[in-house]
Amino acid sequence: MTELTKTVHLVDDDEAVPRSASLILRTTGYIVKTYASGVELLDATQDISPGCILMDVRMPHMDGLEVQAELRDRGVSMRFIEFMPLDSGHEWDRGMVVSGREIRDAIDSVFSLERVGDSRGSETAWKYRFADGAPGEIGIIAPVTEMFCGACS
Question: 111 exposed, middle or buried (CB, 10 Å; 0-12, 13-18, 19+)?
Fold first, then answer.
């Protein structure tokens, strides 16, 4: 993995959460950048490196959903990944999966989406644009309920 793919942006207003989560993530090789609020994350978006955003939904001033809406308005492309069964303890249950379709429906209920193309080809994500013409893109990867990629068997 490159540095860019190993960066986690951790957003939480409770100091204890970023402190403990950062320790765990750093010991497993991730670069962790912490933000005390969604506003602080947004202020850093000019200089933000690509990576994963782990964000508390309930925060003062601007909650996680408001931050996501602002990221959309700024044209940030986002990917959502269906839960994958990676546990070795075999406690995984398919009934626990939030399917790619459910993810799309939840996003579509807030921001109307239009699918880009009729096929994924060799891509892993179905891609969507915002129906209202807002910049950015949504990608949904559903390796449990659909084939992992369009050309995979």
Answer: middle
- 51 φψ region: left (φ > 0), alpha (ψ -120 to 50), beta (else): left
Angle among Cα 107, 113, 114 to the nearest 5 degrees reads: 150
pTM: 0.63
Residue 68 corresponds to which amino acid? Answer: Q
Q: What is the DSSP string of 35-103?
A: ESSHHHHHHTTTTPPSSEEEE-S--SSS-HHHHHHHHHHTT--EEEE------TTS---GGG---HHHH
**HEC profile of 14-36:** CCHHHHHHHHHHHHCCCEEEEEC
Asked if 11 and 32 touch (Cβ cutoff 8 Å), the reply is: no
Tokens at 115, concatenated? 């699918």
Q: What is the pLDDT of residues 90-140, one digit of tens each?
A: 666 667 677 888 888 888 888 899 999 887 877 888 899 999 998 888 888
What are the backbone angles phi and psi of residue 42, rounded to the nearest 5°? -65, -35
Spatial CA neighbour of 13 closest among 41, 35, 45, 43: 35
